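Hi L.,

As promised, HicB-like antitoxin of toxin-antitoxin system domain-containing protein:
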Amino acid sequence: MKKRKILEYNVIFQEEKEGGYSVWAPELPGCASQGESFDEALNNIREAIQLYMETSKKVSSAPSYRKQFIVPVQISYA
């Protein structure tokens, strides 16, 4: 029996003006998807990552980048 790896990737969601969400995995070039709802977009990017892994020649268990963080910053201007 083949041992399965659990991999974790950060994904970024963007709400679209027309409705729905775009979503992509920055550490997997070209791996992106979309959905009419957040849950649909999440399921679609999971499927896209699975397909990416199946077609990728090299699957790395360690990301080749530093962790990224998104933090809201408030400023005041006149």
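Helices lie at 38-55.

Thanks again for sending the construct details.

K.
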